[in-house]
Amino acid sequence: MYRVLFVEFKSGTLWGELPASSLDFSRVLNAPGKATVTVPLANDPLRGHDWSVISPWRLLIYIQRGQRIVFGGPLITWSVDLEREEMVLNCEGLWSYYRRRLINDLSGRWNPQSWTREGAAYVGWDQADIVYDLLRTQADRSYDTGGTDKVERGTGPDALVFDWQGEQEPDPDGKVVKPLPGKGVMPPTGVARTRNYPWYEYKAVGEAVEQLAAVQRGFNFRIDHYWNGDRLVNHFRLMYPTSGEVTGLELEHGSNCEVTEVRGDGTNLVTQARATGAGEGLNTLIAHRADAEAEQPITSRTPRLETVESHVDVTEVATLNGYVERMLREGSKQVVIPSVRLRPDAFPGPDNVQVGQVIGLRVGTPWWPGNQGGEIRGERGAYLIAEIDTKVDGGGEETSLTLVPADLFEGD
């Protein structure tokens, strides 16, 4: 059912397949996820490769279930248990690589449409185009040369692929391209953003994308992996709006899943939210919002709860307002979170679901917080998959879903 593949990070060349006695991996929305693979040392597990290839950041480890790739990311650490004669490989999801790439332009080569020697400046760009430009020019370094070679490979994992759409125009030197107005290289979201990333701040590309996603009317994202011929492809998937991808999948407690726990989470409860932007001292941009109902003595049910976020790259108050509005919306009430365990050999399985998707959930027990009469399904009360955790050991398989109420994202 499962295969573990190891691939050279920089070239994307498939080197082979590893035997695995156990697997433990997670997929997380807007974050890297992680995996632990246990490999028996007997019978030449590397299939003739030298052991020197087992080196952090040299390898990408992919996990395949059936016909689908369910995890991919770099090897970060390894250890050998000599008594048990097995090696443990600890990996992170591929997104961790983009957290290790910085926004700078010291190379002397830049996209004149968005880059200057001072850094990256985007004025009125669709947020999807900003994401594409950051990942493509500052992380993967993959350019359309316009020549017979078509693509000049850089330092990325053979470059991400995107949802290409629309036309493009070359810049004057013909080495990079910019989407024509309204014709993005990923499906546009219709949300224009203005961002400034001075090179001397050395902001991480991953951090910039994550912050862009987190604002009001932002987006969700993940990296999907799939086969293209004999190569594995890493596909950046941007999802807008954040209410999720509707799948029509239904989970029913006691049938194809078990609802193991329901918990209420008030970690992000807030009645007053602030965000700071660019500037220093008294010249710092500040946005502030309060939940009027929660702040009134007559209607208040909690004490005042305040929070603040810093976004030094934001130069417009309207953008900061988006951050505080999002904080208030998500922090207006407790979040009721069910923990769901999929049943083995039932549909859907771990290769049928993905983070960012919306599913319906039916629970026969009528009295539990948030159950809404025993049935949670459809648009309102549906659940967004925020995390998927899978463990495989001794022939057994267990997959748990972390769900978030989809109505938490209404208004995005």
**Category by helix and strand content:** mainly beta
Gap from first CA to last CA:
39 Å
What would you call the shape? globular
Largest sheet at a glance?
A: 14 strands, mixed
**Overall number of domains:** 4
- Identify low-pLDDT runs: 106-112, 142-154, 173-177, 179-183, 373-380
Counted by DSSP, the helix tally is: 5
Overview of this structure, please?
With 412 residues, the protein is mostly beta strands. It folds into 4 domains: 2-93, Phage tail proteins - horseshoe like beta roll fold, CATH 2.30.300; 115-224, no CATH class; 243-265 and 334-409, Beta Barrel (Elongation Factor Tu (Ef-tu), domain 3), CATH 2.40.30; 272-330. Helix content is 11%, strand content 41%. The protein contains 5 helices and 26 strands. It has helices at residues 95-98, 127-140, 205-214, 292-295, 317-330; strands at residues 2-8, 14-18, 22-28, 34-40, 59-65, 68-81, 86-92, 115-116, 119-126, 143-144, 151-152, 168-170, 177-179, 192-198, 220-228, 231-239, 245-252, 257-265, 272-276, 286-290, 306-310, 335-342, 357-362, 375-376, 383-393, 396-405. The strands form 6 sheets. Strands 1, 2, 3, 4, 5, 6, 7, 17, 18, 22, 23, 24, 25 and 26 form a 14-stranded mixed β-sheet that branches. Strands 8-9-14 form a 3-stranded antiparallel β-sheet. Strand 25 and strand 26 (396-405) form a beta hairpin. The longest helix has 14 residues, at 127-140. It is globular. The chain starts with a strand and ends in a 7-residue tail after the last strand.
